[in-house]
Design a protein that fits this description.
This protein is of the alpha+beta class. It is built from 4 helices and 8 strands; from the N terminus they run E-H-H-H-E-E-E-E-E-E-H-E. The chain has a single domain, classed as PH-domain like (Roll). Helix 1 (about 25-45) packs antiparallel against helix 3 (about 55-80).
Length: about 170
Amino acid sequence: MEIKKPLSDRKTLKFSFGEIKPFKFLNLTIFWILFNVAAMYLLYTNGVIQQNSQLGIVIQVGFSLFWLPGIYLYFTYRKENFNSVLILNTKDELVEYKAENKKLKFNKSEIQSCYLVESRSILAPWSTFKYFRIRLNDGKSICITCLLTNVHEIINLMNVEFIYNKSSVPTL
């Protein structure tokens, strides 16, 4: 039987895109899309939309406000961290970030500022989306989204001070 050490006891940690199941971030969004389709179907088959087409448009726009932001966030976060790898060396306080067009290796002392951005609402379908942006002294930055790894876990492992922001829709 293999005994696993807690993450904080490990020297080097590697986080890759795809280790976190992305559909957990889309559950509520998918629910709202299905609810939208079902409601429009019921209203159409009962003749409500045929009698008042403006009502159908208003309902469609209203439902879209619940699922479009979640879809937008999912694809922008996916684009940001797709095929990326984050390697933390907790002993030497080194961070290495590799993406398709970006490769950065830096020490904790090179960090200028860090920002954690989360959704203001806990009930919105996109409330689970969050990201952590690290800006370096040389002007470069990396963005660690919730699709790459657990953002709070990274903050705890790096043990850095950060600015906490809440946004209605936490766009990159």
